[in-house]
Amino acid sequence: MDIAPDILGVVGNTPLVRLSRLGREGRAQLVAKLEMLNPGGSVKDRIGLVMIEDAERRGLLRPGGTIVEPTSGNTGVGLAMAAAIKGYRLVCTMADKQSQEKRDLLRAYGAEVVVCPTAVPPESPESYYKVAERLARELPGGFLPNQYYNPQNPEAHYRTTGPEIWKQTEGRITHFVTGVGTGGTVSGAGRYLKEREPAVVIVGADPEGSIFTGGIHPYKTEGIGEDFYPGTFDAALVDRWVRVSDRNSFLTARRLVREEAILAGGSAGTAMFAALEVARELDERALVVVLLPDSGRSYLSKIYNDEWMRQNGFLDRFPLLARVSDVMKDRETGTPELIVVSKSESIRNAIDTMQKYGISQIPVVANGTARSISDIVGSVQEKTMLDRVFREPALVEERVERLMEAPFPVVQADDDIERLYSELSGGAAALVAAREDRPVSVITKADLLEFVAHQRRRAR
Fold it and tell me: What torsion do the CA atoms of 314, 318, 324, 329 make, to the nearest 10 degrees?
């Protein structure tokens, strides 16, 4: 019979799932490694038992001993499962930014939780790293696995995560994207994949505020990023870094569950955002594997709570992830998508075109067509034309280039409307580009205002 000896026997061998909806943003194949399907709910299940059994073999942990570990939550659960099976006491220190669900989960497994301040340097005696070190010294039989410096951390991923991905993709993986915290996953799995195929690109996803991509400051994404360089991290294995804001991490995690029905944590949103950035640059031959480290069940009071998101400035004032394309759809029909004038046309023709379609500004092209953004060389606007033509009526017979202004700022159709608002705050209109930089529309302040008014009306 195929029966595991205990819960630790079902750690690993998590599935790969194709992201067919989010993956539509690019041509590359995009798949996710679902680490939340480990029994403790995260990728950290892989390292808990390995570190404890190594300590037992080396005589560092004896029966009746106490395991002490600084954790953002997930490693604590992995250790808690092993401690429960083997009969050890577990004390976890955590930063106060970690969710209440994580503290409650650790206590459910029987662990003791000591909460420490986030806004202190790692060397401070109040930091959750230093408090753990002190407790490990003071408690009888204390042992500190120290995932940040324990070589069994990356070794576990070298022996399990890397080989699983290689086997599941039949060696066709071209890019591996993962968040980086202790560095165990990227170093262990990355080393295995590089040994099998040196051309595999290892991408590190890093929160804004983490030391790995510079500029240390507080951030709210949990479980990844650091304010020091862990000993378990091999920086030479990372081919490329993608720096991701808290806002993009959390909104991308929310997209994952809405579009792919995958409930994942904030660090998974970080990795997913980075994977989408990378995948957009690749063709259909690429196979991008993104590791999603944990479930969103531990973040229901935070990133999946609209009020918390709004209070922290992460949730749009409009429907979740409203896009520029939504503003385009919301406009009245009847006007062609994109109207342009050539710089060699007369100003009179430009005025006639404005009157015909009831518009106040038009992009100017060099040769009459606008196949790409580069074809657009300027713009003409009603207000400027009136000022000039009123003072100098003969100008109507001149070429458009005489009154041409700078091109409109460009936004992508899949940009959120916060970006559109930002661009419109400095001008009257913005040019919308679709895939392959093809210009498709002009959106004005009036269009955005009408969209906002409609959303408010629908909300009531």
Answer: 160
Q: Which domains does the chain have, with CATH numbers?
A: 7-42+152-311 (3.40.50.1100), 45-143 (3.40.50.1100), 324-459 (3.10.580.10)
Q: What is the pLDDT along the chain (460 residues), one digit of tens a residue?
A: 999 999 999 999 999 999 999 988 678 999 999 999 999 999 999 999 999 999 999 999 999 999 999 998 999 999 999 999 999 999 999 999 888 999 999 999 999 999 999 888 888 999 999 999 999 999 999 999 999 999 999 999 999 999 999 999 999 999 999 999 999 999 999 999 999 999 999 999 999 999 999 878 889 999 999 989 999 999 999 999 999 999 999 999 999 999 999 999 999 999 999 999 999 999 999 999 999 999 999 999 999 998 899 889 887 665 555 788 888 876 655 556 788 999 999 989 989 988 888 888 899 998 878 888 888 999 998 888 888 888 888 888 999 888 888 888 888 888 878 778 878 877 788 899 887 788 888 988 888 888 877 765 554 4
Q: Which of 44, 130, 194, 220 is catalytic?
A: 44
Q: What is the 3-state secondary structure (H, E, C) of 270-288?
A: HHHHHHHHHHCCCCCCCEE
Using alpha carbons only, give the angle 148, 150, 153 rounded to the nearest 5 degrees.
85
Side-chain half-sphere CA neighbours of 167 within 13 A = 9
Here the tokens at position 392 are 């100098």
CB of 81 closer than 8 Å to CB of 7: yes
**How is residue 135 written in tokens?**
């407790």
H or E stretch including 127?
none
Whole-model pTM? 0.70
* Residue 445 annotated as catalytic: no
- 231: its two tokens: 């000993």
Beta strands at 438-444 and 429-434: parallel, antiparallel or unpaired:
antiparallel
